[in-house]
Amino acid sequence: MHNVVIIGSGPAGLTAAIYAARANLSPLLIEGWQSGGQLTTTTDVENYPGFANGIMGPELMKNMRAQAERFGTEFLIGDVTSVALETRPFAIAIDGERTVHAKTLIIATGASAIPIGLKNEARLTGHGVSTCATCDGFFFKGKELLVVGGGDSAIEEAIFLTKFATRVSVVHRRDKLRASKIVQDRAMHNEKIAFIWNSVVEDILGTDVVTGARLKNVVTGKLTDLPCAGIFIAIGHRPNTALFAGRLEMDEAGYIQTRDGAATNIPGVFAAGDVQDSTYRQAITAAGSGCMAAIDAERFLETTGHNL
Ligand code: NAP
Q: Which residue's CA lies nearest to atom 30 of ligand 1?
């Protein structure tokens, strides 16, 4: 029986663990098979306070994990396959094999990359199609690449990929970027980056590996085949909340709704990070909400006298 079980090992989950561990609550953190969350797939993090010269995403997550471990967080690797929230204590099944019980639960399962939804996209994932420039950029030395999307992720990935590629074309469905001004300016001044406006990827070409993309201009309807060796898709994320559908209150896009801090509609269940935040979605806001969730869980346990 655990005082606090945390699901998720991104900035929200690990910050919740640091706070819960320092409150002597001996938290158990279930970290999933891909530990560290979305920051492990990013490069330089320049806006996380405390790192004047920036820090690499994977290194930041390694440090957070070590900090949580130092105060006595117990880690369990595995995927949560079901959660019983109707009974107390809550029962959390891992990989369908093992069940742990919790007096309070902090959900910090984050969000996942959204695919375009093309048949060839799924087939060629890992063979030229990627959602992680940090992970796969190195494989494309001297090649031409394509990045899909116009947000911060897409433009940062495009800039990063110019370290390897000869040319990076950013395909965006509008004629204006959504990315922040500073990132836009950097990309506009990078001579290896080209922009293909008002266009979407209609199909991904290639038998065994990606050889190109079929683009459609959404204004003229014109189709163009563009040769490239890799396609990086960065069109946003969706919250990982399928496990809680029908039980926790969510908004239309599936983000968990929190109130009074990190509380959900079930007493003793809290949510932190991107899983409950469709607006800010930053590492620092995720970490902040992880802190809130741990403090709320601690107060909940105090109020109930741990009698659950
Ligand atoms: P985002 O801001 O939601 O941008 C998604 C982009 O993909 C948009 O340009 C969108 O076009 C486009 N898009 C969406 N669906 C599409 C589709 N089906 N086909 C083609 N294009 C599509 O997502 P993000 O870039 O992943 O960023 C998420 C959040 O993280 C943001 O708040 C961002 O500021 C933050 N972030 C921050 C940093 C940083 O500060 N270092 C780095 C990365 C991300 P429209 O513009 O037309 O909607």
A: 281
